[in-house]
Design a protein that fits this description.
Helix 1 (about 5-25) runs antiparallel to helix 9 (about 205-230), helix 3 packs antiparallel against helix 7 (about 145-170) and helix 6 packs antiparallel against helix 12 (about 260-285). About 80% of the residues lie in helices and about 0% in strands. The radius of gyration is 18 Å and the shape is globular. The relative contact order is 0.23. The protein is mostly helical. It has one domain.
Amino acid sequence: MSAPWMMVLASLLFATMGVCVKLASAHYATGEIVFYRGLTGVLLMWAFSGWQGGTLRTTLASMHFWRSLSGVTALCLWFYAIGNLPLATAMTLNYMSSVWMALFLVGGAIMLGSQRVDGRLIATILLGFAGVGLILRPTIEQDQLWHGLIGLLSGMISATAYLQVTALGRAGEPEYRIVFYFSCGGIAAGALTTLWTGISPHRTLEGPALLLAVGLLATVAQMLMTRAYGTGRTLVNASLQYLGIAFAFVYGVLLFDERITWMSLAGMVLIVAAGLGASLLRSRAAPADATQSTFEG
């Protein structure tokens, strides 16, 4: 399968995963969903590494720890936002990660004082936050500002996780090993949160089926997206990745009867434009970095 088609399929699977997370949120706490998503990922990556003849042993335990800490935190926040916001809104706020990465680059350049700050990068940041303002306005009117801020925070923390994935890739870690230890982090975080929230009973088969679907869809989509970024053209992949928002929009309207206002739609368009602009500028500045991006679902 070519890289563009892998990216399209990955975007569809991530949006479908979002549907399952939203449905599962009616039965389980966020931590439980993260736990089972991690458990499924661990089992799949263990089997995949054996099939590839690889090993899960690593000499970069500390790097995996910090990557898992940021990635799992972002995942928990994102799943919480999906359960409490319109699906397309939660997806879009998480996709702000590209804009946050641009902000980190600009902030680092200013602090070091060793690089000229690219005005175009600043423009994409301002454009992205203008989109956030438009998206959060309807959430304020619907008393969902807290959930919107959680979704925004998930995108910011995802950006730090992407940078850590890049560092692991440069250190020679294969994607299945990165996903494996990220999934281990999900198990640990999910288990800890259940000490506070308790364990929900499986009253019907629907609940376990949704949990299994979340894990399978997320892990397969994550591998597809990583492979697509590794073999395809960065800007094409970044553009097709935003199809996830369109798929989520369609799912939200058809399955959850969600009403998206013109203000939310305008915000989504601005964030997509800002994300694409930031991805283009970053790929021109450091093309090696972009090939290691891995979505946190």
